[in-house]
């Protein structure tokens, strides 16, 4: 390591000058490492120097880290053409050095990069004018540089030999690192480095492959356009040659052309049957149009008589015996803008009588070229032999003839020749990322008979985006590898602390009701302290099991007492009921109201006793079902109408669909009675009790009781279906009940193989829902002591 003399002699009291010297030395080493920058994408480089910067920051403080960043980052000024990446390295070294006594290098560096988007926005985008997408790639790449260096540094500082040598300089967060974090850091680094090396090579190979595919696609499109141009011009030349031969045969003995009407008819036929021709005319030897098709220009002026004698092709065609094609020029005579024509001489032996000319439909060729553009990223240019731009797919309806001479494209075409692929920079800029973003990949194919060249080009940004997606895919893979490494580290850590986990698992099983859960077996090979912990846990579990058995025994005795007491109470209540009926017959009508009140109170006590008896029998599993085939909806109707009719403040809204199935009529009547009476009881101000039954699509029978009473609280969910539980709400004051109705109802429904739930009703009140298989199921198939519950009340 650098500066061993200072480490041994000064330790933690190293002088400022010594720290600066170490920072300078580490910065020089970082600069040397940065000379071997790896280009992962065009204009994007992976640097190794940040490792030395972070070493300086963590061991010697923020000033040493900033100085090391300033020295090692000089290389980036040449690589990237701007100072903002260099300044970023300086700031990273200072930031990590400032937090070294509070956070680990990885955490502090991650915090720095979490804050860095503001820096990149202010410098790369706003000041340097680098596109946002390129800025994102550069930012992610630099963050990866820094985080990888921080991760590597943490692993290096975990090596015992290094820790012994640098102990006075290692900050507290690294000296007090947990075993799990140390294992996770090492495994993460071991997963990332091979992936980074292989992924970098694969990314570069993929970029080369993408370039090859783009070049092949450009060449193919250029060949297609060149063939279309060659075919169109060949057809146009054939058409004008044929018409020239026809007119040559039609010359008078004196060598005079036929009448203008005849010429116009022939020209109309040529234009009509030659889709690649825009217009055509027959010119005199002097270059004056004798007949035109179409006859007039867009303003309605006749075109016959237009003088074209200044055109070069007028002089050239006089010497020709075969058709020729002109270079691009600015048209007139009904066509404005760049124009290419094909023409053929009219001759009889040596006598030259004029020429036939057809203007090539360049917009049609441009439309055909557009069909080869595909996704719109390609640009197709057709260049004549003199460097004139015949047409450009990116410029519709250009009004002047342009030349590519002395442009970057012309220089690139000179290097490529008549056929091949290449690249050129559309703009020259000092910033590497900006310069690379203007890179154009092109393919060129020559049209042999003319010397024209078809150029198909694509911007490098498209290829850049494809590679960037691959790059971000690599980062995603690295992220998955990191997560996998962390999970592996956790698994390894659990193996180390397996005895503690054994105690924890035993405690969880004990909490779930497994009273035989013990931890000694898991900790039998553990150190003494962990073994003692497991033994203590086992003694506690044994004592807890004994206490639970005592509680359960007491509960069974309580259930037995309730059952006996309920049976004993039913006999005098029955006798009391009989005496009331006897007194009703013997006494006069003046005592009827009093006897009715006594009868109601006796009925109420009887119901309470029956509920207590049911609760105790259910707790002792002594209530078998007596199933018969019946219509459950009739039970619901009968009980609901009887209960609501007895309450003057309430009204019943009933919708009953037949629910025929195997049910215990007495017990289901008890469930309906409990739910409807609850709805009445907990709606003390009155209102409508809504009851409906229906058969669900899965074959279950469902009946629902809804009220507009005091409603429910979600926090009462667990206790309201328990025995003797009614909740602790203030609204329950003055409402009678012992809290066993819902418990009994739930157990009866459960024994039918169904489930019962309570939930708040929208707008106020509560809704009780019972769902039972219509054909019934064995009771032992539904022994879950905690059936499905929703919001409830007692």
Automatic annotation (TrEMBL):
Top-level division of the source organism's lineage: Bacteria
InterPro entries (UniProt xref): HAMP_dom (IPR003660), HATPase_C_sf (IPR036890), HATPase_dom (IPR003594), His_kinase_dom (IPR005467), HisK_dim/P_dom (IPR003661), HisK_dim/P_sf (IPR036097), Sig_transdc_His_kin-like_C (IPR004358), TCS_sensor_his_kinase (IPR050428)
Domain HAMP: 494-549
Alphabetized Gene3D superfamilies for the sequence: 1.10.287.130, 6.10.340.10, Histidine kinase-like ATPase, C-terminal domain, PAS domain
Histidine kinase domain sequence ranges: 564-776
EC number, UniProt record: 2.7.13.3
UniProt GO molecular function: ATP binding
Ranges annotated as biased composition (Basic and acidic residues): 777-794
Key word Membrane present: yes
Main location per the UniProt record: membrane
Catalysed reactions, as listed in the record: ATP + protein L-histidine = ADP + protein N-phospho-L-histidine
Annotated Pfam families: HAMP, HATPase_c, HisKA
Regions crossing the membrane: 16-38, 44-70, 77-98, 110-131, 143-162, 182-201, 471-492
Keyword entries, A-Z: ATP-binding, Kinase, Membrane, Nucleotide-binding, Phosphoprotein, Transferase, Transmembrane, Transmembrane helix, Two-component regulatory system
Subcellular location: Membrane
Spans annotated as Disordered: 773-794
PANTHER family the record matches: SENSOR HISTIDINE KINASE TRCS, SENSOR HISTIDINE KINASE YKOH
Protein name: histidine kinase
Source organism of the structure: Archangium lansingense
């Amino acid at each position: 390591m650098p500066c061993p003399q200072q480490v041994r002699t000064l330790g933690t009291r190293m002088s400022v000058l010594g720290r600066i010297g170490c920072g300078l030395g580490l910065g020089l080493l970082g600069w040397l490492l940065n000379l071997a920058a790896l280009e992962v994408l065009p204009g994007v480089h992976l640097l190794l120097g940040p490792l030395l910067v972070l070493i300086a920051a963590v061991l010697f403080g923020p000033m040493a880290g900033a100085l090391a960043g300033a020295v090692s980052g000089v290389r980036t000024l040449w690589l990237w053409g701007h100072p903002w990446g260099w300044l970023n390295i300086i700031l990273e070294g200072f930031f990590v050095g400032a937090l070294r006594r509070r956070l680990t290098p990885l955490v502090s560096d991650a915090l720095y990069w979490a804050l860095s988007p503001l820096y990149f926005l202010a410098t790369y985008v706003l000041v340097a004018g680098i596109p946002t997408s390129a800025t994102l790639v550069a930012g992610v790449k630099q963050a990866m540089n820094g985080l990888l260096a921080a991760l590597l540094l943490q692993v290096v500082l975990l090596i015992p030999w290094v820790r012994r040598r640098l102990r006075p300089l290692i900050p507290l967060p690294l000296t007090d690192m947990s075993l799990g974090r140390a294992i996770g850091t090492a495994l993460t680094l071991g997963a990332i480095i091979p992936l980074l090396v292989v992924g970098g090579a694969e990314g570069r190979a993929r970029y080369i492959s993408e370039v090859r595919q783009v070049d092949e696609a450009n060449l193919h499109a250029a060949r297609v356009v060149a063939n279309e141009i060659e075919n169109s011009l060949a057809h146009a030349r054939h058409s004008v040659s044929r018409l020239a031969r026809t007119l040559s045969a039609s010359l008078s003995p004196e060598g005079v052309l036929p009448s203008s009407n005849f010429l116009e008819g022939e020209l109309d036929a040529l234009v009509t049957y030659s889709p690649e021709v825009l217009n055509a005319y027959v010119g005199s030897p002097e270059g004056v149009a004798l007949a035109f098709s179409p006859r007039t220009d867009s303003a309605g002026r006749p075109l016959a008589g237009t003088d074209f004698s200044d055109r070069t092709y007028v002089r050239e065609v006089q010497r020709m015996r075969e058709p020729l094609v002109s270079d691009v020029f600015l048209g007139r005579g009904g066509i404005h803008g760049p124009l290419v024509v094909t023409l053929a001489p009219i001759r009889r032996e040596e006598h030259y009588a004029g020429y036939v000319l057809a203007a090539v439909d360049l917009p049609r060729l441009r439309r055909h070229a557009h069909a080869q553009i595909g996704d719109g990223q390609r640009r197709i240019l057709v260049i004549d032999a003199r460097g004139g731009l015949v047409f450009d797919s990116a410029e519709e309806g250009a009004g002047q003839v342009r030349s590519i001479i002395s442009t970057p494209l012309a220089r690139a075409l000179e290097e490529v020749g008549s056929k091949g692929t290449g690249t050129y920079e559309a703009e020259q800029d000092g910033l590497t990322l900006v310069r690379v973003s203007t890179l154009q990949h092109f393919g060129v194919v020559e049209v042999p008979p003319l010397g024209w060249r078809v150029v198909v080009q694509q911007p490098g940004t498209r290829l850049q985006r494809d590679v960037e997606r691959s790059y971000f895919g690599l980062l995603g893979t690295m992220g998955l590898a990191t997560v996998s490494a962390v999970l592996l580290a956790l698994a390894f850590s659990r193996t180390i602390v397996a005895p503690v986990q054994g105690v924890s698992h035993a405690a969880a099983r004990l909490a779930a009701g497994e009273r035989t859960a013990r931890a000694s077996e898991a900790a039998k090979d553990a150190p003494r302290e962990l073994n003692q912990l497991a033994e203590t846990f086992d003694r506690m579990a044994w004592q807890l099991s004994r206490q639970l058995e005592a509680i359960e025994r007491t509960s069974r005795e309580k259930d037995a007492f309730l059952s006996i007491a309920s049976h004993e109470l039913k006999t005098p209540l029955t006798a009391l009921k009989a005496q009331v009926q006897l007194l009703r017959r013997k006494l006069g009508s003046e005592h009827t109201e009093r006897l009715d009140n006594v009868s109601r109170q006796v009925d109420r006590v009887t119901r309470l006793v029956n509920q207590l008896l049911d609760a105790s029998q259910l707790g002792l599993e002594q209530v078998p079902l007596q199933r018969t085939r019946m219509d459950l909806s009739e039970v619901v109707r009968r009980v609901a109408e009887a209960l609501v009719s007895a309450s003057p403040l309430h009204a019943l809204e009933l919708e009953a669909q037949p629910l025929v199935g195997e049910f215990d009529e007495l017990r289901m009547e008890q469930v309906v009675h409990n739910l409807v009476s609850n709805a009445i009881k907990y709606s003390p101000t009155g209102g409508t009790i809504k009851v409906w039954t229906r058969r669900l699509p899965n074959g279950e029978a469902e009946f629902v009781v809804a009220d507009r009473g005091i409603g429910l609280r979600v926090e009462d969910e667990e206790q309201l279906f328990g025995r003797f539980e009614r909740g602790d709400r203030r609204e329950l004051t003055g409402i009678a009940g012992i809290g066993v109705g819902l418990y009994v109802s739930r157990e009866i429904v459960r024994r039918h193989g169904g489930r019962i739930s309570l939930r708040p009703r929208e707008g106020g009140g509560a809704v009780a829902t019972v769902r039972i298989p219509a054909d019934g199921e064995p009771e032992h198939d539904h022994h879950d002591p905690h059936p499905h519950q929703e919001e409830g009340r007692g």
